[in-house]
UniProtKB/TrEMBL annotation:
A Pfam short name: DUF4142
Domain DUF4142: 56-189
Protein's UniProt name: DUF4142 domain-containing protein
Keywords, in A-Z order: Signal
Signal peptide boundaries: 1-18
Protein origin, superkingdom: Bacteria
Species of the source: Hymenobacter armeniacus
Keyword Signal: yes
Length: 198
C-alpha cells in the first residue's frame, strides 16, 4: 500500500506527458524540469535553484533546435541557392553552427541537460517553409527567415549571458553573441540585394 501514491503519481506523469505535444523542444524541457524537481529540495532555496535550472535548460534546448535548423537548412540552401549571397550565407551557417552545436552538446552532457534530437515544431516549420520554395523565392525566404532568426538569437544569447545561473552556460552564451551578431550583420547586408532580384 505504501507504493500506491508513487504508482499513481508516475501514472499521472506518464499520462500528462502522453497528452502533450510531440514538439521535441518541449519534450526535452519536460525531461529537464523533472530532473530539476528531483534534484532540488522543497525549500525556498530549492525552488529558486529549480527556477534557475529551468531557465538554463530551456535556453540550451531552444538553442539546440535552432542550431540544428541552421545546419540542416544551410546544407539544403547551399546546394540549391541561385544567388551567391544565399549560398555564401548558407555555407557560413553550416560551418559556424556545426562547431557551436558540438560545444552545446558537450556542455549539455556535462550539465546533465537533455537536448532535443530533432527540430522543434517552430524550427521544423521554418525548414519546410524555406525548402518548399523554388529558385530565387527560396533564396529570399531563406534570408528573410535568417534575419528574423538571428535577431532573436542575438537577444536570447545576450539575455542568457546575463541571466543564466550556471557560469559555464553563461560563458557559452557570451562567447556566441559576437558570432551571432556577425551573422545578423551579414544577412542584413545581403538581403536587400537578393530581394531586389526577380
Amino acid at each position: 500500500m505504501k507504493h500506491l501514491p508513487v504508482l499513481l503519481s508516475t501514472a499521472l506523469l506518464l499520462n500528462a506527458t502522453a497528452c502533450n505535444s510531440n514538439d521535441s523542444v518541449k519534450q526535452a524541457q519536460q525531461a529537464n524540469e523533472a530532473k530539476a524537481d528531483t534534484a532540488t529540495a522543497a525549500t525556498e532555496t530549492g525552488k529558486l535553484e529549480e527556477k534557475n535550472m529551468n531557465y538554463d535548460s530551456e535556453f540550451l534546448t531552444k538553442a539546440a533546435s535552432g542550431g540544428m535548423l541552421e545546419v540542416e537548412l544551410g546544407k539544403q540552401v547551399a546546394a540549391r541557392a541561385l544567388t551567391p549571397e544565399a549560398k555564401q550565407f548558407a555555407q557560413q551557417m553550416v560551418s559556424d553552427h556545426t562547431k557551436s552545436n558540438a560545444e552545446l552538446m558537450a556542455l549539455a552532457t556535462k550539465k546533465n541537460i537533455t537536448l532535443p534530437t530533432v527540430l522543434g515544431d517552430d524550427h521544423a516549420k521554418v525548414l519546410k517553409d524555406v525548402t518548399e520554395e523554388k529558385g530565387i523565392k527560396m533564396d529570399q525566404e531563406y534570408l528573410k527567415e535568417m534575419l528574423k532568426d538571428h535577431q532573436e538569437d542575438v537577444k536570447e544569447f545576450t539575455d542568457a549571458s546575463i541571466k543564466a545561473s550556471d557560469p559555464d552556460i553563461k560563458a557559452f552564451a557570451a562567447k556566441n553573441v559576437p558570432v551571432l551578431q556577425m551573422h545578423l550583420d551579414m544577412v542584413t547586408k545581403m538581403k536587400p540585394a537578393v530581394d531586389a532580384r526577380k
